[in-house]
C-alpha cells in the first residue's frame, strides 16, 4: 500500500468538480485499503493522540462561515479499534499514546476521504500531529511504515501552501499569488529529486516564506508521509498539481 500526502481543501471542495474528480480518480487507482490512518493539519496535539474508534463516530465541523449544509455532512465509518491498538503497540514504551474516545474526524480527514472513499466502509483512524520537527515526523512515519504491508493507507493531510491571511480573492479559480507559486514550484522540484533535506529546511530555503505558511501545520504532515516511504529519498509520484483559491493543491504518492 502506498502512502499519500494530500491537500484537503475546505468543505466547498465537495462541490468542486475538477478537484473532486482528481481525488476520486486517484483513489480508484489505489489498492483497496483495509484501513486508513490519517494525520491532519487540524489536530495538533502532543503527546500523540488517536481519535475515537467506535463505528459511526460523529464528525468534527471545525470551520466557520460556510453554508449550513456543510455542517450536516456525515461520514460513518466502521470500528477502527484494531488499528488503534496496532498503532499504539508500534510506539516506544517511553512515549504516551492518548486514546481520545470522543474526538471524531476533522475536516482535514473527512472532506477528502468522503470524496476518495465515498462508501465510508473502510475503518478510519485519525492521529494527531504531535510536533512540527521534520526529523521527528520522519521518524514517526518510519515507525508506521510496516502498516503499509498490512494494507493500511497512511495519509498526511494538509495544503502545500496555506497563506490564508494573505489571500485577496476567495474564488476557487483565483490566480495564485507569487508566494504561493514560488513555494509550490520549489517544493515540487525538491519532491521530484527526492530531496528530503531541502524540504526539511523550508524555513531557510523555501521562497515565499512566511507568506506560504505563516504557520506550518499544513506543510509538516508531508514528513509523516515521506517517513513512511520505503525510501524517502526516492521521488514519489506527484498525482495532483495546480491551485485552488490560489493555494497549491500539489499532492504526492510514495511507494
* Whole-number count of domains: 1
* Helix content range: 25-40%
Radius of gyration: 17 Å
Strand portion: 15-25%
* Number of helical stretches of at least 4 residues: 9
Number of strands: 10
Low-confidence spans: none
- Quickly give the structural class: alpha/beta
Helix/strand order = EHEEHEHEHHEHHHHEEEE
Strand count, sense and closure of the main sheet?
A: 6 strands, mixed
Topology readout:
Elements: E1 3-7, H1 17-29, E2 35-44, E3 49-50, H2 81-90, E4 98-99, H3 107-116, E5 124-129, H4 134-144, H5 146-149, E6 152-158, H6 178-193, H7 196-200, H8 202-205, H9 221-228, E7 237-240, E8 243-244, E9 247-248, E10 251-254
Structure, briefly:
This protein has 255 residues and is of the alpha/beta class. The chain has nine helices and ten strands.
Describe the structure.
Helix 4 (134-144) crosses helix 9. The strands form three sheets. The chain has a six-stranded mixed sheet, sandwiched between helices. The chain has a two-stranded parallel ribbon with strand order 3-4. It has one domain: Protocatechuate 4,5-dioxygenase, Chain B (3-Layer(aba) Sandwich). It is α/β, with parallel strands linked by helices and 255 residues long. The protein is globular and about 45 Å long. The termini are close together. The protein is built from nine helices and ten strands. A hairpin with a 2-residue loop joins strand 8 (243-244) and strand 9.
Amino acid at each position: 500500500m502506498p502512502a499519500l500526502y494530500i491537500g484537503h481543501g475546505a468543505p466547498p471542495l465537495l462541490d468542486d468538480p475538477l478537484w473532486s474528480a482528481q481525488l476520486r480518480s486517484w483513489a480508484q487507482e489505489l489498492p483497496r485499503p483495509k484501513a486508513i490512518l490519517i494525520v491532519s493539519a487540524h489536530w495538533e496535539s502532543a503527546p500523540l493522540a488517536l481519535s475515537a474508534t467506535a463505528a459511526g463516530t460523529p464528525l468534527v465541523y471545525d470551520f466557520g462561515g460556510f453554508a449550513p449544509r456543510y455542517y450536516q455532512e456525515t461520514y460513518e465509518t466502521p470500528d477502527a479499534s484494531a488499528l488503534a491498538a496496532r498503532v499504539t503497540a508500534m510506539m516506544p514504551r517511553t512515549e504516551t499514546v492518548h486514546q481520545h474516545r470522543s474526538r471524531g474526524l476533522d475536516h482535514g480527514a473527512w472532506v477528502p476521504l468522503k470524496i476518495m472513499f465515498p462508501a465510508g466502509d473502510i475503518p478510519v483512524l485519525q492521529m494527531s500531529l504531535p510536533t512540527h520537527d521534520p526529523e521527528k515526523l520522519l521518524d514517526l512515519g518510519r515507525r508506521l511504515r510496516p502498516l503499509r504491508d498490512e494494507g493500511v493507507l497512511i495519509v498526511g493531510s494538509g495544503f502545500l501552501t496555506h497563506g490564508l491571511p494573505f489571500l485577496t480573492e476567495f474564488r476557487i479559480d483565483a490566480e495564485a499569488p507569487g508566494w504561493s507559486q514560488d513555494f509550490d514550484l520549489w517544493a515540487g522540484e525538491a519532491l521530484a529529486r527526492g530531496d528530503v533535506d531541502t524540504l526539511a529546511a523550508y524555513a531557510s530555503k523555501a521562497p515565499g516564506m512566511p507568506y506560504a505558511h505563516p504557520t506550518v501545520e499544513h506543510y509538516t504532515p508531508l514528513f509523516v508521509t515521506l517517513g513512511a516511504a520505503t525510501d524517502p529519498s526516492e521521488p514519489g509520484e506527484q498525482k495532483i498539481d495546480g491551485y485552488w483559491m490560489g493555494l497549491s493543491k500539489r499532492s504526492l504518492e510514495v511507494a
